[in-house]
Write a structure and sequence with these properties.
The structure is a homodimer.
Chain A (H helix, E strand, L loop, with lengths): L6 H16 L12 H8 L3 H13 L3 E4 L3 E4 L8 E4 L3 H7 L4 E12 L2 H6 L7 E11 L2 E11 H4 L4 H4 L4 H7 L6 E10 L2 H7 L6 E10 L5 E9 L4 E10 L6 E4 L13 E2 L8 H4 L7
Parallel strand pairs in A: 3-10
Antiparallel strand pairs in A: 1-2, 3-12, 4-5, 5-6, 6-9, 7-8, 8-9, 10-11
């Protein structure tokens, strides 16, 4: 084993531990394994482990108590917001959280092939492409890239988009969002996104793609959204339905006209008196 | 600018590009930006960019054509499976995909505090903890850690769990899974999970936590699942409901007794004749 610090391996371990702390899997107060254990587990030199712990300590995510070990301090700032998945923004507004937006770009371009196909565009039809960063309580939490057919995009201005949610603008203009398809995955932050979301390159992000159609089946919006998982967690309630042998999960959130149902609420670091939020805490790995 | 290769920076760029290729954001046939452009974009030396491209080429994810550039080849093997989120496994079975499981561990332990709280356990109540890797067509795609109260866990054996889905075992024993709460995020693969899922450490994973309750409100299962996003994408259909000013998205998948509704199907690299799957393709960044 070498005793030279390997800064990029230290960075990798730092990112992994940071991810576990900000996600709550390593809860505040938890004692981290000792340096020799971390070194063996990750195949690293002890000095490299120490460097990773130094980085965490400099961010206030761990605290070292000489003689007793390294303890998780948890992120002091923004906590994940627990929300109903498709109605994220209206959920945040309903719970009175201050949201903001930064419009990073706004332009009309030839439709990329994948977008043209997804939105069922006519050949040669152009699109409005915009990139926005959404903030909650002043902190960036999502990076949104939208493509909208030119005929829809022209119904509002760049200034409108910098102030008002896109679906609201469209619905004001008489465009009817009727149905959509949504896919969820995970991805790594590249340099541009990392900078916009105030993150390290290589951090994990929730990746959501939604395509929205009007009642005639024409595409009206293609959204690609990236979310910081340490600032937002998607939640849904499920009920188990069906006869024996055919039992399955059904979303419990199909109550469209009752705003009180919006279960979005700030997650708290304190124990809850209600059982539901506690269900979201994860075990230490 | 230095001309020395920096292997860990090369690895980071390799991971980012790999993620974009396997997710389909860099589609097969797409020409990558030239080495000078990638070098400037990521703040790296050209030799470091070349090393990252070498790694991708050695995996067959890109192809270099001398004089014309580097082209994405896309992953030849398993494609993402598009599925209904809460009923992943039954969806896969309904579409005739061969699924398998590896039971990595099975033990009875004292309940970690977060688990005891989530499942509303009695003080001192023990749990069965198991770790499984689920395979589709012989390839690992999910890493599942479950905690089940001892009274529930004793209704089946280790051999049962290595052969049969957990909820099915519980329901056979007369335990009623009545409702649940599910949260979705994203995380980075650590060494253990990366090895089990045949991935690089630091890859992005979908992170799902589900807690299941019986009709009396007692917790019967705590599931923490990690999914490879290049082998699985969660999909849901949405409909827009409600009056003007109160419009919101509602899940369209609440049709519990109709197995044909299971929209899980293999995503194809070829253009589809139906509009829906195309909606999931993402634009090049």
């Amino acid at each position: 084993m070498t005793s030279a610090i390997e800064p990029h391996k230290a960075r990798r371990l730092y990112l992994l531990l940071r991810d576990q702390i900000t996600s709550g899997r390593l809860p505040s107060g938890e004692r981290l394994p000792g340096e020799p254990v971390l070194a063996a587990e990750h195949g690293l030199a002890r000095v490299t482990v120490r460097r990773a712990l130094d980085l965490l300590a400099s961010e206030g995510l761990v605290h070292r108590r000489p003689g007793s070990g390294t303890f998780v301090q948890g992120p002091a700032g923004t906590r994940p917001v627990v929300g109903d998945l498709p109605n994220l923004l209206s959920g945040l507004i309903a719970m009175g959280r201050a949201t903001g937006v930064r419009l990073l770009s706004f332009e009309y371009v030839a439709a990329p092939a994948a977008i043209a196909e997804a939105l069922l565009l006519e050949p040669g039809e152009r699109v409005q492409r915009s990139v926005r960063v959404r903030l909650i309580d002043g902190q960036p939490f999502s990076y949104l890239t939208t493509h909208v057919p030119e005929r829809v995009g022209l119904s509002y201005s760049e200034a409108d988009l910098a102030a008002t949610p896109l679906l609201e603008l469209m619905e004001r203009s008489g465009i009817v969002a009727d149905r959509g398809t949504q896919a969820i995955g995970a991805t790594l932050a590249g340099p541009e996104v990392a900078e916009a979301l105030d993150l390290e390159v290589g951090s994990a992000l929730i990746d959501l793609t939604r395509v929205v159609f009007d009642p005639s089946g024409r595409g009206v919006e293609h959204l690609h959204a990236l979310y910081r998982p340490d600032r937002y967690a998607f939640q849904m309630d499920l009920v188990r339905t069906g006869d024996a042998g055919e039992r399955r999960w059904t979303p419990a959130s199909a109550r469209p006209t009752k705003p009180a149902h919006l279960s979005a609420k700030p997650a708290s670091a304190k124990p809850e008196t209600r059982p539901r939020p506690a269900a979201l805490r994860r075990p230490a790995p």
